[in-house]
Amino acid sequence: MSLKPGTRLGSYEVVGQLGQGGMGEVYRARDTELDRDVALKILPQAFAADPERLARFQREAKTLATLNHPNIASIYGLESTPDGRALVMELVQGQTLGDLIRAKFEVHSSKFEIIQWAVPIARQIADALECAHEQGIVHRDLKPANVMVRDDGTVKILDFGLAKAMAPEGGASGSDVSNSPTLTAHTQMGMILGTAAYMAPEQARGKSVDKRADIWAFGCVLYEMLTGARLFKGDEVSDVLAAVLRQDIDWTALPSDTPPMLRGLVARCLDRDLKTRLRDIGEARVALSRVNDPTAQGSMAQNSAGAISQGGLGPSAQSGFGAPASTARLALRELVAWGLALASIAAALGIWLTRAPVTAPTASAVVRTMIPPPDGTVFDFDITVGPAVISPNGQLIAFSARSRDGRIQLWLRPLDSANARAIDGTDGASFPFWSPDSRSIGYYSPGRGRLERVDVAGGAPVEIVKAGFVRGASWGPDGTIAYDASDSGTRIAVVNVAGGAPPRPVVEGGSPRSPWILPDGKHLLYFNRDKLRIHVVGIDGTGDTPVVEATSSAIYANGKLLFMREDTLLAQSFDLSSRTVSGTPDSIARGIQTLLGDPRGVFSASDTGVLLFQDGVAGAATSLAWFDHDGKRQSLVGEVGTARGVFLSPDNQTAVIGMLDAEAQLSLWRVTLANNQRIRLTYEIGTNDVSSFLTWAPDGRSIAYGAKRDGKIIINRLASAGGQPERLFEVPNEHTLGTVPRVTAWTKDATTLIYASQIKGGLWKLPLKSAAGAPLTSIPFISNAFNAQNAQLSPNERWIVYQGSVGGGTVSGIFADAYPSGGLRREVADRGTLPRWSADGKSLFFAIDNQLSVVDVTESDGSIQFSPPRGLMPVIVGRGFSYDVAKDSRILALVTSETRASRPLTLVQNWLATLAAK
Fold first, then answer.
1. Is residue 882 part of a domain?
2. What is the pLDDT of residues 681-714, one digit of tens each?
3. DSSP letter assigned to residue 204
4. In what order do the strands lie in the sheet with 654-660?
5. Is 413 helix (H, G, I), strand (E, B) or coil?
6. Active-site residue list
7. Domain presence at residue 123
8. 48/82 same-domain check
9. What angle do CA 508, 512, 518 make, to 5 degrees?
């Protein structure tokens, strides 16, 4: 139907028609209630005659309306028309990407200009797709005509998910097949749905599709932006579909000076094999953000290896983005040959039984064994656990595993046994590391705030040194231990295992991570997180020298430096005398995990030729679950990805969680607890950051949180419905040492926030009112000498509790003080973190190691008393406030997801033989 200007649909008045296509007619309209322009998409009349399709569309539209991203055109609602329904959408001013591509190439822009123009647009598209994919929404019809670019360069993707929402039963495709509207046709396998020129091969065959269909379409769009020509053409729709399925891709059409990373990215997206196509659009976003980084390009160029050609696909990189097509076929033949050889060996030796003991390999055999986690546990390797490690003698594996109720313990698995055993007294143990003689295991104990060691033969854990949060350590041949003291200004320090002298700094400042002492005992490797490279430095702190570009930590074994670039494990020859690399790095394995929240690869090796790693999606997912006040589980809200912290709204209907993406970038999301519906609230990327600690406003309409943006340390206020954050306060650097502050309390009258530093503790009040025009000023409240943080106000606001250092050490306890006066500090518990009050103020909860505990609270005559703590339930620690307490004293907590089992470990014996074969 056609709508004339002036036609009213509810509060919307039609202004004029904007266009039409397979998804319906689009009109510009005026929202007379909110005084804004909108777009009305009039759905095809077939909907009115099909109640089932209309109901399905309404359900899908509700899901699409939850998408909240600056690069996705918003859906405002549905309106009834005389003949059907109209979708009310954000009106986006600008040009379609298709029009811009034609304009760019008509004026003969330089190849350099084309690349510089295309990359920012592609990055925004990838960011929008990532947001949708995280919520399980696939576009299914991505094409230049569905991408608008505003005059300021902002990208807006249109018709997100409508291809699935409309799901028509049939219909013609239209005449312009090279850029046809949404196409549908029946097949024996299902339904073809999308636009012919941008369909993924599996989509064109009528098979079910997932987010990888969007990744293929993204590759088509990116190719078109770089070349000015559509990739797949034809006079008829059938011709286009045939080209999608079989046509060789002309890689020579890409500009000759296309950066290798960008060229390889297009190839990975346009891989016809679903198993080797780019797995996650977030990887594309990261690659695009580094295209213009010469360091990254050099790294990728050096990291490139042979590619597998899939029916003329071309350079789909095996160990990085980009590789010449001539190398691709050779690599394929080699991989097939080695795959058959390994399969024969595996069949002969019977080694693919995952729980079978590991047998000694022959001198030349490459033996792979899959090692599952112990029963009832998962390999939830992340910043709170650390990776599994193989002993120097190659006979034992040490790892921390998390039970499904959140308990973490250190485990030991001999290679000649099918069973692993838990080591007593190691609750909460993380980041294990071996002694050179393989007789002892070192690890970090967060509950006791120290590095410890335990003998393999048995016995109680022994303290090595008091330490804040440690993310990695290494044990040298003379008893020296180097560790990453990541909660202090000294980031890498050394101490002797026998004690005596206090810790001594080796590398101070910056972002060094994961030390590894070399066999000479006089030098160590570390990963420079800021510069993305491996350094070597003397144990005495002298001679700090960069060695090789990398994206994660490095270890030394068998004369090789093992490190990662992106998700590829590489080995490069390393000379111990000159401490330099030589030759080019060899690819060992792809798809290797990196610890979520920290740039350390999940791999280990010994000088005996044994390699251990874990591939697959990093980190086990977490879920939200309700527990009663006694710690008994009641119900499951649902899976929430890899979450860091949960904060209940005042009405207990929603919660805000911090969620890590595949690149360990944290963002804040709002969760509706009734249906586990999630909406993303923050979009800090790159060097910007947000804290996973926050507080709700008393009225529930906004949250306050710490952030880092453009080098500034700030406190933001953000509407709980989403939108643009308001910068409340720029925190002086001396208060935080450059780290994002933890904002954890907001007074009932909404006048004051309380925040603390992540590193140099101390509580500060931030009054939210000041003299007219004057900037806000924070006021010190509790001295940083107490390392106070994670403060919580009692419901009557007479008391404040927080976690702080006990006796000036690194062990955290729970303390209480009077509020607002202060000065009455008293100890509630000598161990504990993450305190929270019950709604009536009669109970105080906090975590001890991996156990949630509670104390009874009694007030009288201006004093306060606390009972001894009693344990309630296991709780995941190290992920921020992993629980919250509701008004009815129920507990909402993060738990390890039961729907996503962790990947097994891969053990490779005689892995050096693979290098010899290459």
1. yes
2. 987 665 578 888 999 999 999 999 999 887 788 9
3. H
4. 642-648, 654-660, 666-672, 677-680
5. strand
6. 141
7. no
8. yes
9. 100
